[in-house]
Please model this.
Amino acid sequence: MSDPIEKLDKHLDEVWERLQHERLARVARRSVRPLIRLWDGDWNFRGVVAGEIDFSFEWRMNDVGGGFVKLPHDHYLALWAMGVYKRPTRNIHITVDKDGARWGGRMQSATLVKNEDGTRHVELKFLDDVKELDHVHVWPNPFLPAGVQFPKAFILAGPSRYTLKLALFINLMRLSGNFWHLPDNPLDPRTWVEGIVPHLWPILVQPDSLVMDDSQWCIISSRFDSWMEMARPILQDAGLMIVTRRWIEGDPKPKGYLFPLRTGQLIIDIVDKSGVYEQTATGGTIFGGMWRTVTRLGDNLVDEVITDVVNPVEPAEYSLSQFLGTKPAQPWVVFRDGDISPVKSGSWTWEPATVVQINAGGRSAPGVNTFISANIQLVGNLIGAVFLMNGIGAIADTALKPLYEDIFLAFGSIKSPFRSAKAGWSHYHEGWADGAETSYSLSGLVAFRQAFWETRSRSKVTVDLEGGPWTIGTEGQGHCWLGDRVGVTLEGMPRGQYEVHQISGLVLAGSRGEPVKWSMTVGDPRTDQAPIERLLNQSRFFFEAIKKLGVWS
Model:
């Protein structure tokens, strides 16, 4: 009978060998080049990109990412791409597969460049599939023609994730169903029934359950806004993330799909990877680890109060052997700077909050002007009845309307005591909430929250990664991915502490003679945005709001 200690030693040796094998496999997988494929406008396969000069592709959270591939001018795919008038379809699509993730996009431009040394190359630039959502408008009534739109606006209330996906699904049905337009190919009988056959649509929505959706509630309203314009503030407020993926033959079907799919169909999903309104980590220390916190709205409905979780819940997935990934309820990945560190280079930017008080409005609350008008007409008609002067109430109301209209309950103001206390006695005072027709309404409250959100303090960490214990990849392929909460600390940041934010951007880049590497942005990507650029973006939203107010007035 063998010694139990010998058995234990043998078992531990086997475990050690297995772990070493897994470690080496992960290291090898990190340096594997991505699979880059080009497709034509009908998603017919054209070739695998190899021998490129360099490439770069960017994932951005709830925003459009860009990418490019630079090819020698005599590369067969470069010749095909530049043969514009020989291709039956003009569009060029691309898919990039790496560590379980797939970057899909459509070509924005193809450029032939001659360099000073006489060499030539072709640069193909792409925009990722989130751009598709900028070109889907949410009609007030998707089931009626454009000339007859009743009611005036598309309004829907419910859990944020389900409500946004339902609005997108209905308008995709309108586009693919050809309700009020001829199909792309009227002679093909299949195109006349696309509206009731989802597997023929170019864009599909991941099925979801209204009952099981526990995301923050919202009310959406649109009058021919693009879906992305309508959804952006809700996604920010609820901590949701858009997930896009092109389905290619051989891939497993998305959960909930029973009907067949075709190569190139875009699957849209919305997921909650923030966990801020349930429980997650928003910061931590080197010695104590991440703080488990939960975020709640203050009594003024604009301030957010972060409290510690006394009895945190451990995600069940973390107890599974060989689980790779991060759950929002308990983030755990921390990238630490030091002599031995995966952080090759990086930067940390922090901006303080600006104003402590937000004003909004312009028109009286619903019913106020009507109430005053009714009382003036009533008093005028009573006086007119005494002096036998019929209609004096309407005359008085017309004369007095410029004096009382939009005077009472037309404007509102909310101050943040938390922000004021942290700013000190010397600070910026007031700001304006764009897009609020009246401050005493649900839309006004949303505008207040949006204004406080836009003027909050911001922080961002950008790091270039090289090696290290953590791998970038989707769940099952890497420890963290876009939208996951991770901690990052650089030497020189507040001593002993690190910030925990969502990964807001990822860049995959490679070139000849250089290994493939990841760059990561954690936190608000707009902290280093030029002030004039941010002002132009805000002006665009302001004029869109004014346009909508003009329609409603």
